Input
Amino acid sequence: MTRVRPGLTGVVVLLYLSLIVPVTHLISGFDWIGWYVAFGLMIFAVGLIGRAAGLANGLVGLIQAALIPPALTAAFAADVAWLWVIANARVWDRFSDLAGDLGRAFLLEVSPLVAGEWIFAFVALSGALLAWVFDWYVFTVKAPAATGLFAALIGVVAVAFVRQGLPLTVFAPMALAYLILLAVTATGARPRWAGGAIAAGAVALGLAAGQITPGLGIGGLVEGHNRSDVFIGGDNPLVDLGDDLRASPSTEALRYRSEIGPVYLRLTSLADFDGTTWLHRRGEQRLYTPGQSDYTTVPAGDIAGGAVGATAAVEIEIVELNSEWLPAPYQPIGLRGLDDSLRVDLDDLTLALMDGRTEAQTYSTLVWRADPGSHEARELAVQPLSPEAEAMLGAYTQLAADLPAVIGETARQVAAGVGDHPLDQGLALEAFFRESGFVYSMSTPAREGYDGDSGAVVARFLEVKSGYCVHFAAAMTLMARELGIPARVAVGYLPGNPVSQDGAGTWYSVAADRLHAWPELYIRGSGWVGFEPTVSRGVASAYQSQAPLPSASGAAATPSADPSSAASASASPPSRSASPPTASASPGEPGPDGSTGSDGSAGSSRGPSWQVWSLATAVLLVAAGTAPGWWRMVARRRRMRRGLAGLWAEIVATARDLGLAAPPWRTPAALAAELASWLRANNQDAAAAALERLASRLELAAYAPPGSSGPPGPAGRAAAARGPAAQTPASVGDAPARGTSDRDDAWAVIRGLRRSQSRRARLLAWWLPQSQRRAVRPSGPTPRS
Amino acid sequence: MDVSQQLANPSSGLGTFAAGRHAAETPAGAGFGVPADQTAVPAAALAVAQGAQAIAANISRVIAGKQKAIELTVTIFLAHGHILIEDVPGVGKTMLAKALAASVGASVKRIQFTPDLLPSDVTGSPIFNQATRQFEFEPGPVFANIVIADEINRASPRTQSALLECMEEGQVTVDGVTYGLPSPFHVVATQNPIDMEGTHALLEAQRDRFMARIAMGYPDEDAEHAMVRARDLAEPITALRPVASLDAVARMIEAGRRTYVADAVSRYAVALTRATRLSPALILGASPRAAVHLLTAAKALAAVQGRGYVIPDDIQVLAEPVLAHRIMPAAPARGTEAIIQAGAIIRDCMATVPVPIAAER
Output
């Protein structure tokens, strides 16, 4: 016998709450616990109340599930929703944004996840679903042991995502709560230790899996350690970058003070290209501890930098950026003020923090600014390098075998006539992109189906001439390699906008959506030199513009570069003047478009999806409100097919719906008599007669010896059984009843019962059918303990 | 809503259980009567119904306004069960027992139980015959078809036991010789529920032997007045003549025994009995013998109503008379309150057992 068990709910809630312990290692802060508890308890409370009200278990589960979407809407998008709970386009956008944040975070972030709105939404949703699953398995499926599997699943996730590994003790509360649940639900001779063993095995398996595959699900660009939550991490860093770009908010990520005008802040570089994907090149690494107050030299490899250039100081203040990579202008030669050690990639000077995060760090870098356009540099460029350095550079000119030919052809066309100096060729390539009709567009690649960075995508990009930084950078890098110039894709931040000025330089503010990719070419004698092929973005070769201009020989060699670089280099206004075109593109990128764009769907597809969402919410709400009624109709259909007993059960249920007492302990004869007299009192004589016929037929079918069918017809039997003194007028109505079918009679009775009640009672009967409440068994006249 | 309250209240009289076809004519009874349409009824059941109605009518000539008690008594009699009539003095317990005996042409003995009554006064004892110079067994009053044991609780437990052994075994053993009792053999015992000095209330095990306990209750005002007027002239009991022969009674009992019981119905009887054992209001529920008695009585009731099969209504009607005297409440009431209390508990138990409806078999 099932009965409401508040104690059991308490134990399930205990198990649910015990899962908080391992998850605290997964999410930083404690604010999320409130959401987890609130949504879980809501589900459990609805379950408890529903069952206490006597609703069928399945029905309770449906109501619980239907409540989740409106509750989420009310919690996270009430300000934009209709009536706080009904979804509309803006609610849809809100959740799209949250989902975008969520997806990115799960792909990229390193535990503990930093709490944010999306974390709360995710915790609330998972909490509600978990509570629902617990409730469903314990009360509806009646397999409480199964909750262990879901609890173990949470454990597996926690183990898998927490980098440092989890002490087993965090699972103790969970195990304890689970054992209590098993003990409470164990029935007599059949203890459910089997289920417990399964669950324990699952937990052990989860732990083992966690040990075997540390960092499961978190793609590492540089194996095992260098993970950034900013954009790089998945299988395809540049595609991720595009996604990030579309989804990033325009909030300030960092600010810097520069003595030398705007600078690109580099996070890392991608050099290994297999034809489809760009990856960070693994090279030698060195541990490095920056000084607190004095600059200490950043270790660098043979090919890290060049010989000709100047130093400048850039002070960086991280506002809101969580990454393991330190943003820094190239080439950092000194660092100070950082309270953490770094791993330095000797090849490309990617600075990876050992333990901490970039968040809230303030530090200064001493930057070596190559001057590739200078005379000395141009002279040095022809001198041979050491064999080791040549070998290292070789890796940066490798090209995938199946690279489309059009890339090389285009490169050679562009470079024709500018001489064989790599700087000239690089500037020619840059000018090609900026001046031959390329258009910056976040949406075109996605729409045209060539989003990404593979060779084929680059070829298509050269044809369509529309894309964003990833395409420009990848295309130019490949073209440079076709020309024999070592090249790689740098990723980091655009220079940003100047905000204020003080004695030590200009402060620039960089928004999170200034994520960028650009090519770096190795110019012998000068080292790695960045270029800016992306139209309407950033400043074209801002830092080397000083070099070519004063250099007499370079001036002639780089005519094509001059117009653009001169314009942008003249002062910071050009850097701003680059903003208008950027701004014209930006309505489409960092805003709501970005989130849906990242799904690969164009903006037009959003209309139907939110309407569907709203409709679904409305339908769910209506369904939840009227679920008992629908459930009742299903039950009626089922019963009406189950012969006489089913018909009778349906009549009894209808009577109960209408507020007439029809407890299960009343015999058919007694109930029939009572209901018949009620029907007659309400002028439903035909229904009363039908009811009596049905009751006597049922009695014969249910209790009489097999094969005995009241010879003169069941109706006659009913009259006969009523005894000699029964001279009720009902016997008159028995006569025409012979041919009527059971179903017809049942319908007649149901109709009669309905007509005998007021409209209000009928409506109530449909909306909140009492028959859907479980018949509470101890319903005797005197309450019993 | 008044109607639902009325429908919902199962304690609005025993009549509720017998509602429907029975309710109109016998508000508180098992519902006697020969079916109007006799073609639909098995001949055996019809005979039982007619016989039972005749007996009941005969009895009601001397006991006014107690239709329910009379019908129940006849039903239990035809179920071949012993009857315990328990009520306050002067409501016609003994009259009912005597009227029943007089109506069936059976041999009747009446034993007035007193504290000094000995077992041999009930069973009989060997008497020395001067003529044959031998001990001869002189049968006691227990050798009769119907034994009226008046005020059984006034006798010593030893004497009570002697009678109860006869009831159980249908025979008497004196000095190693076993004497069979006549058949049918019925004990109709009466008992006063008001505690009195020098009485020994029957133990549970002894009460269990009685198929049913019948509470008479006071007659209503008109019936009481009619009774007073009738007694003016003569004792009406002397005018009663048998309306059924012993043979006829034996045939009726046999027919009742053969009443069909569907599986669902016998299960319902068992479930009801078991429900009393789960009731927290009781420290002792009904025995398996109670379930047997319940079903046997229900079969007789079905036959008495001219029905060839038992329906759950039969079980419900008989649940209180058959079960109430066997249970032991956790907080027992005293006197006539105890009877009311036991009935309420049985009805509560009944409300916990759903009636089985198995139309497809």
